[in-house]
Amino acid sequence: MKKFLLTFALLSAAAYAGACTSLLAGRKATADGSTLVTYAADSHTLYGTLYFLPAADHPDSSWVEIRDYDTNKPLGRIPQVPHTYKVVGCMNEYQVTITETTFDGRLELVDTTAILDYGSLMRLALQRARTAREAISVMTSLVQKYGYYSSGESFSIADPEEIWILEMIGKGHASKGAVWVAVRIPDDCIAAHANQSRIHTFPLDDPDNCLYSPDVISFAREHKYFSGLNRDFSFSDAYAPAGFEEIRSCEARVWSFYNRFDSTMTAYLPYLYGQSSNPIPLYIKPDHKLSLQEMKEAMRDHFEGTPFDMTQDVGAGPFKVPYRFRPLTFEVDGETYVNERAIATQQTGFSVVAQQRSWLPDAIGGVLWFGVDDANTSVYVPLYTGALSEAPLSFREGNGNLYKVSWTSAFWVFNWVANMAYARYNLMIEDIRPVQRQLEKAFSKQQPKLERRALDLITEEPQKALEILDRYSRESADSTTSRWRELGEFLLVKYLDGNRKREVDGAFLYNPYGFPEEPDFPGYSEDFYRAIANDTGDRLKVNF
Fold first, then answer.
1. Residues 6 or more apart from 13 whose CB is under 8 A from it?
2. Under a CB-based contact definition with an 8 Å cutoff, are residues 432 and 69 in contact?
3. Which is the most buried residue in 135, 210, 262, 538, by most CB within 10 A?
4. Which residues in 246-377 belong to E strands, given as ranges?
């Protein structure tokens, strides 16, 4: 029979490249009983769109072409399975979600002759697995057969019942496959990973909660990465030992998430300062059950209220900007310094909060709350992945690109607003935040009503139920993009040329004769003026 070559629809040539963050909450750690997984796809070359792969049947002897997600380099091909499931972003039609963060680890273990990179593994598993455990099996069996092309990777793998962290690294050119370990996060706990391996010691005889490759320890011994007792083996220490960069730029993000929900996390500050070797736990039990909105807000974190608060040093400038443009390190008088790297960052292509619920049919239970660009200045739109028939126009691949602006593209509209805000952050965020909250609050309020209606129809009129959820998802995305463009136009007018136009509830004010009111001039912060005075001495001083 004729062989067919099938290719994936990719987000971009670097869809999952760079430094990302994933936050997790088990079903007994959330207020509504859902499992929650977040993901920020951070990359300076990523154009944030929503990929959409419909369910499909495939002829015998079909093949899947594999391309590296970071470069689009062809790596090879593998046989296709007879049927693949629908995938929307990082969630499939059975509420299985997979996200990732990359860590370098031991670079000699990268196998550039292998076929499967981390992004392909994610997509293949989502197309072939109906549970988190099935996804782990798919991913680990595929790399065993075809090799693993990428550097180290931490994967969040979730379904409505369970959340796992799978960590994997290759074996280098001499040995095909990968070494890996997967740990189930307790249902009443939260976890996170952010570009550094997080699994240290793990149970060797608890297959319900921990799975690992048979040679994960012996391979480390063979390569002299480890020499102790098996029970003391640390995957992270053996395959990705942490230095200053991994702790301060990566583990600090995990700490900041935990610190929101556990007041004892200050005990780990010495670790972040390089004064202790006691690592941050893989997971913790939070002091209360997390809401969906709290997970969204955690994605907007810049270490506010902690010793690493990015708004509180001179790098924040006169408008308290919690962002630092790259590179993250710099030198002064022969000394190297580092900027903080927060969860929320300007180069995010897209981010998600994936909500999986066991008590609802898959078409209703799985919601991918999707936003583009910086999570701090974005809006999470609900997408019912099991019902969605196509990507919304505003999130669609091909609607603009990284070098072509499109005003119907959410990526460009949200970037426009965010980049205006970076220039005058503490002023503009006060206008952005109310609109963001209004939109997200409206979605949250509508969610139970919409789902009750769909649930009433799902048995007798399933197609009608799907159409309702599909239409709601696509209209929500496109209307949010339109509303954000209106916000951008408002900000452009209000802050034009460094002044601030007078307005009430979004309506600009006129004088009694029909001319615009005189704007006000907020100027700079007191500490910035003081810094100018100290720097210039008497040159700017008024003394006559």
1. 45, 70, 71, 72
2. no
3. 135
4. 283-284, 329-332, 335-338, 348-356, 367-372
Residue 90 to residues 293, 308, 344, 459: CA-CA distances in angstroms? 20, 31, 19, 27
Between 132-146 and 118-128, two packed helices, what is the crossing angle to 10 degrees? Answer: 130
Nearest to 183 by CA among 160, 167, 161, 205: 167
For residue range 467-499, what is the model confidence (pLDDT) as tens digits? 999 999 999 999 999 999 999 999 999 999 999
For the chain, how far is it from start to end, CA to CA, in angstroms?
94
Alpha-carbon distance values, 307 to 393, 398, 418 (Å)? 42, 42, 25
* Angle formed at CA 199 by CA 72 and CA 305, multiple of 5 degrees: 90
How far is Cα of residue 203 from the mean position of the Cα atoms in its chain?
28
Whole-model pTM: value is 0.94
Give 59-98 pLDDT, tens digit per residue.
999 999 999 988 899 999 999 999 999 999 999 999 999 9
Helix (H, G, I), strand (E, B) or coil at 486: helix
Query: Which tokens belong to 8?
Result: 């994936």
Distance CA(254)–CA(250), nearest Å, equals 7
H or E stretch covering 542 = none
CB atoms within 10 A of CB 511: 10
Tally the C-alpha atoms within 13 A of residue 131's C-alpha that lie toward its C-beta: 6
